[in-house]
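I'd like us to work through together how a protein chain folds, taking it slowly. To get us started, please write out a protein record for me. Label the sequence line and the structure token line clearly, so we can match residues to local backbone shapes. Once you have written the record down, we can walk along the chain together.
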Amino acid sequence: MPERHAEHPGAAGVSLSLPRRWLLTLALVASGAVAAQDPVRVGGDPHYPPHHFLGVDGRPQGFDIAVIEEIAGEQSLAISVEFGEWSATLAALERGELDVVPMFISDDRRQRFLFSKPFLRRHHVLYGRPGDRVESLEELAGRRVAVQFGGTAWEWLVNAGTDAVLRPVNEESLVLVEVVRGDADFALLPEDIGRHTLAVQGLEGIEVVGPRWLESDYALGVNPARPELVARLDAGLAAIEANGRLEALRQQWLQPPAAPARRERWSAWWLLPAGLVLSAALAFLVLERRSRRQAR
């Protein structure tokens, strides 16, 4: 098997040792019947838009969170949401400290978790510099590839034995930045995350340079000690699919966001100092002319 190379995530500017968690409780009382039951503990990544992330108000948002809220309403479940670093979140689910985490289904993860029925089909793509086309894993040998540590792309590249130099980062939305600033040659991440990141952050100079990879089902991973929860999640999913809410949430959250007016914003910011300089120059000319008149 070829030797695998990986650098510590701290090399990307984010240390895995830094504790970072948010605990937000969502009191979902659909009919007043959700009285004293223990909440279903939902985990996720605070930087994974549009699926799950922290909003500007500090509350959990995203397509996955909205789906879980709808399921909870259908099944009269109370939920709490705890966000943290992705690899730590998966470990917490495996230890039983969390009950539900949305994720891709893989062979490795089937050995660690139970799963609800899938509610999405997603895939990964490779981003790089324009013209730097890659068609196979073998072509990544010796090249620096940014991936989220503990994510599906990370698992796949490690298990495949590719001789790529892995550049792990803690936030999937930051893997594209590694390419933009020259710290990686490529970034492998889910297509919808990449599309969302490019649009929202206005990143330029990178594009999809490879075929679809890792086309997989996306579902709710479940604490292996909570098999009874799978049936309730599946029932809730079936209900919101039948009543149209699931499709409505897909339309609400998963449509490509509008790209920011980046150049216009920069133009507006540059007009401010330019206007100040012009005003100062005019004031200087007026004062100079007055001085000349007084001298005469």
Q: What stands out?
A: Confidence is low (pLDDT under 50) at residues 1-5, 10-35, 262-287, 292-296. Residues 264 and 270 are 10 Å apart (CA to CA). Residues 262-295 form the longest helix (34 residues).
